[in-house]
């Protein structure tokens, strides 16, 4: 599991390095493009993911204590927060698309190269992150069923722990994406 998580961090690390080198090259364009970002959506999604990570940690602890019902509720909460995160990201992307700020749109193509690259990176990085959130929701749905069938319990919590590690990695990536796109530039 740790090797998989490291490979995921390397993938996102490469994208963050690309962002950093592009920020240096297109500083003013990135600054102007970042004004289009919705700080409210970004802030709410940060709070949602941090809360979902808390729920995962509490679910792992509840499972280890043999509190099946509590663990199920906490995992259901994690799945719910993941869905809310994706819905908010959908709303935010919809807002950008409505303003013509999406790859290959005529409006975006008319902007300077640095602004185009900012939004290209935004869609690639947040889209890839959203895909990871979707995978996490799927994994937790399977684990939820496994807990119901007692395949995951206080004696066998490893699958839940590994899914929790994956979810925390997804959360950490967002904690870096949020300031990079919404605050720093």
Describe the structure.
The structure is a single chain. It contains seven helices and no strands. The chain is elongated, with a radius of gyration of 18 Å.
Write the layout of secondary structure elements.
Elements: H1 2-25, H2 27-34, H3 39-64, H4 68-98, H5 106-109, H6 113-148, H7 158-184
Helix pairs in contact: 1-2, 1-6, 1-7, 2-6, 3-4, 3-7, 4-6, 6-7
Q: What letter string, H or E per element, gives the SSE order?
A: HHHHHHH
The domain tally reads 1
Helix content: over 70%
Q: What share of residues are in beta strands?
A: under 5%
- What oligomeric state is this? single chain
As for the CATH topology, it is Four Helix Bundle (Hemerythrin (Met), subunit A)
> Which stretches of 5+ consecutive residues score pLDDT under 50?
none
Q: Label the CATH architecture.
A: Up-down Bundle
Mean pLDDT: 95
CATH class: Mainly Alpha
Overall, the morphology is elongated
For CATH, the homologous superfamily is named as Cytochrome c oxidase, subunit III, four-helix bundle
Q: So how many helices?
A: 7
Offer a quick outline of the entry.
With 185 residues, the chain is an all-alpha fold. It has helices at residues 2-25, 27-34, 39-64, 68-98, 106-109, 113-148, 158-184. Helix 1 (2-25) packs antiparallel against helix 6.
Tags for this model:
185 residues; 7 helices; Four Helix Bundle (Hemerythrin (Met), subunit A); elongated; mainly alpha
